[in-house]
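Hi P.,

Sorry for the delay on this. The queue was packed all week, but I finally got your sequence through. Input first:
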Amino acid sequence: MRHIALAACFTAALPAFADPLPSWNDTDTKSRIITFVEEVTDPAADGFIPVKDRIATFDNDGTLWAEQPAYFQLVFAIDRVAELAAADPAIAGSDALKAAAARDFAGVLASGEEGLIEIVKASHTGIDTEAFIASVSEWLATARHPQTGLLYKEMTYQPMVELLRYLRDEDFQTFIVSGGGIHFVRAFAEEAYGIPPQNVVGSQVATTYEVAGDGTPSLIKQPELFFVDDKEGKPVGIDNHIGKRPVIAVGNSDGDFAMLEYTTAGEGPRLGILLHHTDAEREFAYDREGHIGVLNRGLDEAEARGWVLIDMASDWSRIYTGAR
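Then the structure:
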């Protein structure tokens, strides 16, 4: 009896294994992800992947944080034009810039692609990269979403933050591969996701090296487009910045299709994951139609390609890091 009592005490003292994904419901989706990670990190398994090859790439908008009713970077751009125009009204020299200066989102969208380019040029260029990153950080400290009332930086997805942490605990390198601007995402990626600036791949305008009259060197963002990290551009960006094909790729729209296709076409175990926005009550429900996060081909082909399709409403017990 004494031995039984001692064994019981010893067993009670053992720590329970922590759930690596506590904000995920116990569904097949969670099981598939954990099973994959366990298999590729087990040295005795046939599908073992060495640490040096454990690369995981994540889209940002709609995958790591929300993207409705407009990309948060566009909201920032409009707010910045409004701020600049308040100091110098001459900046609002076109219909698109006038709409942005008035924070008229309908007018901005009505200006079309040409108008959006004007707004991006006015808000994102002619500025030192470090000063630009600082301006994004300042904006994120106070800017709030009109529907949730949360700070935009609080609208990161807690389940995805957990997935990123879980992968890094298993010696994966995690990267953001976003259609958003590289310097915009670098402003918050480390604080929000634990992803350092050098692990961010994004769209870029041209940048030039300049030395001021006092001898201070800086990198200035120019109005010319340099690289668009979206759709077929994502695998190109991965090759240019990372230099290895990922083994895990995570996205939410057809803009991420090429990244998942490229990733899962590699040899050995591979995992493609798409987030399906199905939760109109706690977040937003959308897929096949709209101007943001359109998901057609991904929905049609995910099952046949063996990709995991996350059902936000069913698979997640919590959505935002800033709200329970």
